[in-house]
Amino acid sequence: MRTEDEAVEYIAALTQMYREQGRYLERIYKWAKRVGLDEIRTQIMNDADKRTAYYARFVESQKYAQVDPWSERVSGKDKHEFKPMAVLGQPQAAEQGGTHAQDFVAIGHIDDQCPHKGGPLSDGIVHGNAVTCPLHNWVFSLESGKAQGADEGTVRTYPLRNIDGSLFIALSSLNAAAE
Ligand code: FES
Fold first, then answer.
1. 31 torsion bin: left (phi>0), alpha (psi -120 to 50), beta (else)
2. Structure pTM?
3. Which homologous superfamily does the CATH classification assign to the domain defined by 86-178?
4. In the chain, which segments carry CATH 2.102.10.10?
5. Alpha carbon nearest to ligand 1 atom 4, residue
6. Measured in angstroms, how far is the CA atom of residue 129 from the centroid of ligand 1?
7. 157-158 and 109-110 strand pairing
8. What pLDDT, in 10s, does the model give residues 41-73?
9. Which of 152, 178, 157 is nearest to 169 (CA)?
10. Residue 110: which of 85, 138, 131 has the closest Cα?
């Protein structure tokens, strides 16, 4: 690729190919794995006609709806859910938390593996103080790790502490998880 316009065309064409072929709730990397990089390369990199057609359909689609699903929330609705996270500091500082213990943050850190059938909770949707597993929609509290509603199971949690704007995970909880 030599120009920015060319790069935009390839990217938009790839996006359109995914939009047309992806299954409901299928992430782009999972779609790429299913379809195969060779097929994507064939259609986007090697077939100029196909690429141009994908690009044209992408541009056409943007004439009718170009809604950024996040902008409404970032600019007001549910704004409180989008606070910047601080960079983790030195772990030893967590041990000094006694004097700043009042600020446990509203979010928690939990293991990635869903206790139901091993779904990747990091791919789940976070809402309020809970996360929904992407495989079968079980909901887990980010504070207690317990499955909500009628479902049963618990995922390991790691308490986070906010000390002067930096987030810390207690070493003891990491050590316990490693045992
Ligand atoms: S694997 Fe998470 S709900 Fe089934």
1. alpha
2. 0.41
3. Rieske [2Fe-2S] iron-sulphur domain (2.102.10.10)
4. 86-178
5. 136
6. 18
7. antiparallel
8. 999 999 999 999 999 999 999 888 777 766 776
9. 157
10. 131
